[in-house]
Amino acid sequence: MFNIERKVQATVTDNGSNFVKAFREFGQREEVEEGSQDDNEDAARFEDVAAILEGEGDDERLQFFLPPHQRCASHTLNLIASKDLERAVSQGATRKLFYSAMAKCSAIWNKAHRSPLAAEAVEEIGKMKLVIPCMTRWNSEYCAVQKIVSLTESQLAEVCERLAVPKLLANELAFLKEYAEVLKPLACALNLLQGETKCFLGLVIPTLLTLKKRLSDKKPHVRFFCEVIDTVVKAIDSRFQKLFSSREAKLATASSPQFRLWWLPDEEKEDVRRMLVAEASIMEPAENTAAAASATLSDSGEEDFFSYGPAATRGTNSGPPEEVRKYLEGTNKKLGALEDFPSIKQVFIKYNTTLPSSAAVERLFSHGGNLFTPQRNRMTDEHFEQVLLLRYNSKICAVAVE
Description:
Elements: H1 4-7, E1 11-13, H2 17-26, H3 49-54, E2 69-71, H4 73-89, H5 95-114, H6 116-126, H7 138-149, H8 153-163, H9 170-182, H10 184-193, H11 204-218, H12 226-239, H13 241-244, H14 247-254, H15 266-281, H16 289-296, H17 300-305, H18 320-329, H19 342-351, H20 359-365, H21 381-392
Parallel strand pairs: 1-2
């Protein structure tokens, strides 16, 4: 009725093996790309005739399939930070330093978490509250380390003494400070991809490219993390290889006024421009385009009467190639700039409906420990919908969710 199957661009999940297996078995087969091993269109295909005959009259089952699968960008980046980064930093010359420094930090966190008196002592000395890291979220560990290194050496020594934990040595503290400084772009990238205000697929590639550049720029100035930076950059290239070559991701980014084609190397810009023109050419014009044009020109009678100043030029539809050219020459980075380019706007809507991360949806359904309680285990569909809408609008609505 609503043609939903043609509107769903992708389903975003985390990297769990259950999701990966389900979409591999029941997902849509991807179209053959140029240069793949199946370029020969005349190649023989073998079908199980018996299975087809047995399934005759049961064609409805063929209509059910999973949409294209996309792995959550923030979860993938979190894996790089928690797995690849930890593997790199716990090897070689930094191994002993990493474990000793993190062990002493853990002692401080455990004391502050378990003892209200210890937490009050830290707050009294440092004029702040410590962040206790969450095991499943690397950026919480980063924030916790950042809080510790923000203390002065005298404050940190006093905290360790009051909490009766081993003091951090000079080289351990230097290691932690470099950890906080070098990995700051990684924490910023995670926060961007997990955000709720710019949930666009077109945000992912520029974020990753900027992250790689900022990490590489820090290499000449580091003491402990040179090899770690190389490992993280390689992990980004490896884990996001499919996304970097994705046509959908490139169109989502190119149709975003904030990025256009500025993020691309010169040798790739022409190819993406052609893709954008081809996609804009098949887009149906927005319904409100004609209304907006008539509203703009509604006072044309007055223009004909008065002769002051230059005559107003009426906008003409010069076709997608010209529209794409003007769009790419523009410099307005605000999303509202798309109102002047109706075909590009349709491309943006089509390819940026895919969320870059599942974090926003997980936060929407998350309700602390209140999931498997008598309050929620027998909810009707209508009640569940009401609770979900109230929770989503809780910032602007003071009505209780339960």
